[in-house]
Specification:
With 807 residues, the chain is an alpha/beta fold. It comes from Hymenobacter rubripertinctus.
Length: 807
C-alpha cells in the first residue's frame, strides 16, 4: 500500500508544473468553492429546490483531473463538480443551469434539468442518436443518486477497455477505444463504501483485472453518521489490504492512501496510479483521507447539529483550499497578493455565471407568463367574468418567480370559468395551452426510449422461414444456433454470466460457443448479479453489445435496483444523450420451489420502464426477439420459459436473421365466445384449457401478448374483444400483478370496456410463492382446470341454461 510517506520515494510529477499550472488549479478550486457557496444561497432564496455540493473535495479532484485523458471515463457521484470543471466538461453557467433545473440540452447538457444538481454526464450521442467519437472525448457516464450505484457500471466501463485491448476483432473500432488504453475513474464517498455494491464491484474488478481507478473521498461522515458506525476499523483502505497485489504481474489491486489537502502528493499519487492502471490494467483504489465538507451534507440540514466544535474547528483548519494556499506560499509558487486576486476574481466569475444562468432560465418563462397574462386580461374584457378571473390573473401577474406549472395551472382553471362560451381569446388560450402541453411533454416526458433509426420499433420485420423437412430439435438448440449466427455476424456481441462459459449455461443454449468464439466473448462470472448487470451497462455505453445472463428470474432481485435506477432511465435522464443497449437474458415461470419458480412481473414492470420486457412462449420466439434486440439500440429483458428448453421445435432456416417485432401479440387460437390474454409458459396451459373447453361447446380465442413492454401497440386485443365481448387475463404472477397490468392496458388504454358483456376476470397465481414439488406447483399456480373453470363460470353467468353449474 502506498501512503503519503511512501509516495515521496517515487519521482514527483508536480515538480514539472509551471506557476501558471498552479494558479490555474487554484483558480478552478476557488471557482468551484464559490459556486458551492452561491448554490446554497440560491436554494435558500427559493430559486432552486435543493442543493448538494462538492465543497471540500476541490483539491483531490483537481489532482484526479490532471490524470484524466481523452478517451477515459468517469462513473462518479454528486460531489464531483470540481473534477468536471477541471476536465472542461462543465461550465459554471451549466452548473447553475442544472441547479435551476433548466430543461434545455444546450443550457444544461448533462440532464436537461431532469436530475437534481450535482448529477453530471457528457453527451455521447449525436442528433441522430448515434455514438460520437468516444475515443477522443473526455467521457462521463450519467450520474445516479443511489449511493454506491455508480460502482456496477464502473466495472463495465473498465471491462470494455480489457475487451478492446485483448480482442483483435475489436481493434478496428477506433471510435470507441485506442487499444484499451482508457481508464475508468470512479468516485464514492466513504460512507457509501458500506454498500454491498461497492464490495461486489471491488471484488469483480480484482478478479477481472481491469483498468478501474476508484477514489474514496473520506470526510468521516455519511450525512450525520460517523465512520465508527460505517466501516470496520473506520478505514476502508485498511480493511481492503488483502486486495493489495504482492508485486508487479500479480493479480490484485494497487491501494494508495493520501491526505485530501496535500496537493503535491495528490498530484503525484494520481499520476502514478493512473499510469499503472492504464498500462498494466491493474485496478487501483485511492483512499483520500481527511477530506472536509464545509457546508455539511446538503441544503436539507446543518452539520453543526451533529459535529462537535472541535471537529468543526479541525475541518476549518484542514480545508483543502486553505492548505493549498499555505503550500503555494511556502514553496514560493505565488505571492499573497496573487492568491488574493485569484480568490476575488473567482467570486466575480461565479457571480457572472450565476446571473447569466438565471437570466437564460427565467427570461423565457417570464415572457410566457406575460403572454398568458395578456390573454387572460383580454378574456376578462370579452367575457365580463372580471371578478372570477381576476382571482386567477392577479397572483400570476405579481408572482416574481413563476414556474411553467403556474402558467398552465392558471390557464386550465381559467378555461373552466368560461366553459361553454365562444370567443377569439378563448380559442387563443386553448391554442396556447395545447402548445404549452406539447412543449412541456418534450421537456419532461421525452426519450424514455430511443428515438433513433435503431429504435426497437424501427427494426425491419423479417419473417421466420422453415424448410419443408425442418428438423425437430430441442428448444435450446434453436437458441444455440441463433446465438452462434449473431456472434459470427457482429464481433461486438459477447455474453457473460454464471455458468455461461465452459458448460454453455445451465440449459445449454451457449453450449460450445466458448470453444468457438473464445473466453472473451462467452465468459463465466462469479455469483454477483448486480455487477454482472453493471458489467454489461458500462460495456454497452462504450459501443459493445453485451448479453448479460441472470441465471433464474428470481435472482433478478439482486440486480433490479441497478436496472431500474441506471440503465432503464439512462436515455430519459440524459434526454437522449447516452444509451446502453443491454440485453438481460433470464429464465423463469415454472420449475420447482419458492426460489426457482418466480414470475415477479409486477415488480419488473414497475421498476424497469425505459427497458423492453419480452416474454416469449418458446425458444423460436425468443430467438426472434434476440435477433431484433441485437440490431436495436435499446435495452431489454428476455424471460425464457424455464420448462421449454427440452421441448421440440422446428429449426428455422434463417435462425440468425428473422426478427420478431415487439409489441405485436399473436393469436394462437381463434374463438368466438371469450378472449384469453396471456404469455410465456401459460400459453401451453391456456391452449390445453381451450381444447377442453371446446369439448363442452365453448370456443375461446387465445392471444399471446409476447411482450409486456411494449404492449400491443396496434391494439390487436381490443379487436378480439369486439367479437367475443368477454375476456380473461391469465398469468403466473401474484394477484393484481401482471394480470392487472394487462387489464389496465386493454380496458383503459384501449378502451375495450365498451365491448364487454361480462365482467372482465383475472386468473393469477396465489399470493405466496409456490412450494416445492409438483403438487405445490399445481395448487399455487394456474393450471388447466383453473383455466377451464374460470372461463366456464363467465359463460355460465351469461347463459346458465346452456352451461349449468359444475360444482
Amino acid at each position: 500500500m502506498f501512503t503519503a510517506e511512501t509516495a515521496a520515494d517515487v519521482p514527483t510529477r508536480v515538480a514539472s508544473f509551471s506557476k501558471e499550472d498552479f494558479l490555474r488549479d487554484y483558480r478552478l478550486g476557488w471557482e468551484s468553492r464559490q459556486a458551492s457557496l452561491a448554490g446554497r444561497k440560491e436554494v435558500f432564496m427559493g430559486k432552486a429546490k435543493f442543493g448538494i455540493f462538492g465543497d471540500g473535495k476541490e483539491v483531490p479532484q483537481l489532482a484526479m483531473a490532471r490524470a484524466f485523458r481523452a478517451g477515459d471515463w468517469r462513473a462518479g457521484y454528486y460531489r464531483d463538480q470540481t473534477f468536471m470543471l477541471a476536465i472542461g466538461e462543465l461550465t459554471l453557467q451549466q452548473y447553475f443551469a442544472q441547479l435551476y433545473a433548466h430543461p434545455d440540452v444546450e443550457a444544461e447538457p448533462a440532464t436537461a434539468g431532469r436530475a437534481m444538481n450535482g448529477h453530471f454526464g457528457t453527451r455521447h450521442l449525436d442528433e441522430d442518436g448515434q455514438f460520437t467519437n468516444l475515443a477522443t472525448s473526455k467521457n462521463s457516464s450519467a450520474d445516479i443518486s443511489p449511493t454506491g450505484g455508480q460502482m456496477p457500471r464502473l466495472v463495465g466501463l473498465a471491462y470494455a477497455s480489457k475487451l478492446y485491448r485483448q480482442n483483435p476483432e475489436l481493434h478496428e473500432l477506433t471510435q470507441f477505444s485506442t487499444n484499451g488504453n482508457e481508464v475508468a475513474f470512479g468516485t464514492i464517498g466513504n460512507a457509501s463504501t458500506s454498500e454491498g455494491m461497492f464490495f461486489e464491484a471491488i471484488n469483480a474488478a480484482g478478479v477481472l483485472q481491469i483498468p478501474m481507478l476508484v477514489s474514496v473521498w473520506d470526510d468521516h461522515y455519511g450525512i450525520s453518521v460517523p465512520a465508527e458506525y460505517q466501516t470496520t476499523k473506520q478505514n476502508i483502505s485498511e480493511i481492503l489490504k488483502g486486495f493489495q497485489r504482492e508485486g508487479e504481474g500479480q493479480d490484485g489491486f494497487e491501494i494508495y492512501r493520501v491526505k485530501g489537502w496535500d496537493y503535491a502528493t495528490l498530484v503525484d499519487t494520481y499520476q502514478q496510479a493512473a499510469e499503472i492502471c492504464r498500462t498494466q490494467h491493474v485496478p487501483v483504489l485511492i483512499h483520500v483521507q481527511e477530506v472536509t465538507q464545509p457546508q455539511g451534507h446538503s441544503t436539507s440540514g446543518s452539520h453543526e447539529r451533529y459535529k462537535s466544535k472541535d471537529r468543526l474547528s479541525w475541518e476549518e483548519e484542514h480545508d483543502c483550499l486553505r492548505k493549498m494556499r499555505e503550500w503555494l506560499l511556502q514553496e514560493g509558487h505565488a505571492s499573497e497578493d496573487e492568491l488574493t486576486a485569484v480568490e476575488n476574481e473567482a467570486k466575480e466569475t461565479v457571480k457572472a455565471a450565476r446571473t447569466a444562468a438565471w437570466a437564460a432560465f427565467f427570461t423565457p418563462i417570464k415572457q410566457e407568463r406575460d403572454e398568458v397574462v395578456h390573454l387572460l386580461n383580454q378574456l376578462v374584457a370579452e367575457t365580463g367574468t372580471e371578478n372570477k378571473l381576476h382571482e386567477l390573473v392577479e397572483p400570476l401577474e405579481h408572482n416574481p418567480t413563476p414556474i411553467r406549472a403556474d402558467l398552465v395551472r392558471t390557464v386550465r382553471r381559467a378555461l373552466r370559468q368560461v366553459r361553454g362560451t365562444r370567443n377569439h381569446t378563448r380559442r387563443e388560450l386553448q391554442n396556447w395551452l395545447e402548445q404549452a402541453l406539447a412543449d412541456n411533454a418534450d421537456r419532461y416526458n421525452s426519450y424514455l426510449f430511443s428515438q433513433s433509426e435503431e429504435a426497437v420499433l424501427n427494426i425491419e420485420e423479417v419473417g421466420v422461414q422453415f424448410a419443408s423437412d425442418a428438423a425437430q430439435v430441442d428448444g435450446r438448440e434453436v437458441l444455440q444456433a441463433c446465438f452462434t449466427a449473431n456472434f459470427e455476424r457482429d464481433p461486438r456481441i459477447f455474453a457473460i454470466g454464471e455458468d455461461v462459459g465452459r458448460i454453455g449455461d445451465v440449459n445449454q443454449a451457449f453450449a460450445g460457443l466458448q470453444d468457438k468464439f473464445g473466453e472473451l466473448r462467452v465468459t463465466d462470472t462469479g455469483i454477483r448479479e448486480c455487477t454482472i448487470i453493471g458489467q454489461g451497462i458500462g460495456a454497452a455505453m462504450r459501443g459493445l453489445r453485451p448479453i448479460t445472463e441472470i441465471q433464474y428470474l428470481d435472482y433478478l432481485l439482486y440486480a433490479i435496483q441497478i436496472l431500474s435506477d441506471d440503465v432503464a432511465c439512462l436515455q430519459y435522464r440524459t434526454k437522449g444523450g447516452q444509451k446502453a443497449p443491454l440485453i438481460v437474458r433470464t429464465r423463469g415461470h415454472r420449475l420447482e420451489g419458492i426460489w426457482h419458480s418466480g414470475s415477479p412481473i409486477q415488480m419488473i414492470l414497475g421498476a424497469i420502464r425505459g427497458m423492453h420486457l419480452c416474454v416469449p412462449r418458446d425458444m423460436t420466439q425468443a430467438a426472434g426477439f434476440y435477433n431484433t434486440l441485437l440490431r436495436s439500440d435499446e435495452p431489454a429483458i428476455v424471460i425464457e420459459c424455464l420448462n421449454g428448453y427440452r421441448l421440440k421445435e422446428k429449426m428455422p432456416q434463417n435462425v440468425g436473421e428473422f426478427t420478431l417485432p415487439l409489441g405485436q401479440p399473436e393469436t394462437l387460437k381463434k374463438g368466438t365466445d371469450l378472449t384469453i390474454v396471456t404469455y410465456g409458459s401459460m400459453c401451453r396451459i391456456v391452449l390445453e384449457g381451450a381444447r377442453q373447453l371446446a369439448e363442452v361447446g365453448i370456443e375461446v380465442e387465445v392471444i399471446d401478448v409476447q411482450t409486456l413492454l411494449p404492449f400491443d401497440v396496434d391494439h390487436v386485443i381490443v379487436d378480439s374483444l369486439r367479437r367475443t365481448n368477454r375476456v380473461l387475463f391469465a398469468d403466473e404472477d401474484v394477484p393484481g400483478g401482471g394480470t392487472a397490468y394487462m387489464m389496465q392496458q386493454v380496458l383503459d388504454e384501449q378502451q375495450a370496456y365498451r365491448f364487454l358483456d361480462s365482467q372482465p376476470r383475472c386468473l393469477a397465481a396465489q399470493a405466496h410463492r409456490p412450494p416445492y414439488g409438483s403438487d405445490g406447483d399445481y395448487f399455487s399456480k394456474p393450471n388447466v382446470e383453473d383455466v377451464f373453470d374460470a372461463v366456464y363460470e363467465i359463460m355460465q353467468e351469461a347463459d346458465p341454461k346452456r352451461f349449468p353449474a359444475i360444482y
